[in-house]
């Protein structure tokens, strides 16, 4: 019996390192980012702008609370801090709705929106677990022109936060990288018979519209704030 026990222990000792090597490591939890208007990491993930590692994990821009950094202080995501890259600029009005997508729904202290060091808006999370998709309507007051908005999701059960930068033109029409000069629709007119998928853009009623998800037949401008069509603003004609 003793010989059998010793043999089993020896085999176990030999097998354990192999299992430690071959078993997959636990994957890190995913988190969240701003998907609309398209944040910098969202543009990276979509291939709109050429980026590094962040294109594979737009949800993971996590850092200590209190930063004013697009990268969350993460060196691997430093390209998000580079204002010279051709980030797509979304034309918006003085009031606009921002959408977060949470892939791990941490208990939330609040969401904050900054332009520079100015806190423009704050929304309480009440320490509760948020929905997978959360929207906030932000009023920019007297701010106009090209602005970089820093959206921050402050987690309640850790000292960390998640960061997203969004380039906008408040009260403007410039929609391209750099945001200089007036934009033009530059997209095909809406077709009621066509099937559109998330990310498709159309022109209708002098505005450019982007589909948030699959749609056909629904007219842009009639689906409301929470509807399928996102108004990207008026375009030059």
From TrEMBL:
Keyword terms of this UniProt record: Hydrolase, Signal
Superkingdom of the organism of origin: Bacteria
InterPro entries noted in UniProt: CBM5/12, CBM_sf_5/12, Cellulose/chitin-bd_N, GlcNAc_Chitin_IntDeg, Ig_E-set
Cross-referenced SUPFAM superfamilies: Carbohydrate binding domain, E set domains
Gene Ontology biological process terms in this record: carbohydrate metabolic process
Gene Ontology CC entries for this record: extracellular region
Pfam families found in the cross-reference section: CBM_5_12, LPMO_10
Gene Ontology molecular-function annotations: carbohydrate binding; hydrolase activity, hydrolyzing O-glycosyl compounds
Signal peptide limits: 1-20
Residues annotated as domain Chitin-binding type-3: 187-232
Keyword field contains Signal: yes
Protein name: Chitin-binding type-3 domain-containing protein
């Amino acid at each position: 019996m003793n010989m059998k026990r010793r043999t089993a222990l020896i085999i176990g000792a030999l097998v354990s390192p192999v299992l430690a090597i071959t078993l997959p490591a636990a994957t890190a939890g995913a988190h969240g980012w701003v998907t609309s208007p398209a944040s910098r990491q969202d543009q990276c993930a979509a291939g709109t702008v050429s980026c590094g590692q962040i294109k594979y994990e737009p949800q993971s821009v996590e850092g200590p609370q209190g930063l004013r950094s697009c990268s969350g202080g993460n060196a691997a995501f430093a390209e998000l801090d580079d204002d010279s890259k051709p980030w797509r600029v979304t034309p918006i009005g003085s009031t606009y709705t921002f959408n977060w997508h949470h892939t791990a729904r941490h208990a939330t202290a609040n969401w904050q929106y900054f332009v520079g060091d100015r806190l423009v808006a704050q929304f309480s999370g009440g320490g509760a677990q948020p929905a997978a998709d959360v929207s906030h309507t932000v009023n920019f007051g007297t701010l106009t022109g090209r602005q970089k908005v820093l959206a921050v999701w402050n987690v309640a059960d850790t000292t960390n936060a998640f960061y997203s930068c969004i380039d906008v033109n408040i009260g403007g029409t410039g929609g391209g990288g750099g945001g200089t000069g007036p934009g033009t629709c530059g997209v095909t007119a809406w077709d009621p018979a066509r099937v559109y998928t998330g990310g498709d853009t159309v022109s209708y009623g002098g505005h450019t519209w982007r589909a948030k998800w699959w749609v056909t037949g629904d007219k842009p401008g009639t689906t409301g704030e929470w509807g399928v069509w996102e108004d990207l603003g008026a375009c030059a004609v």
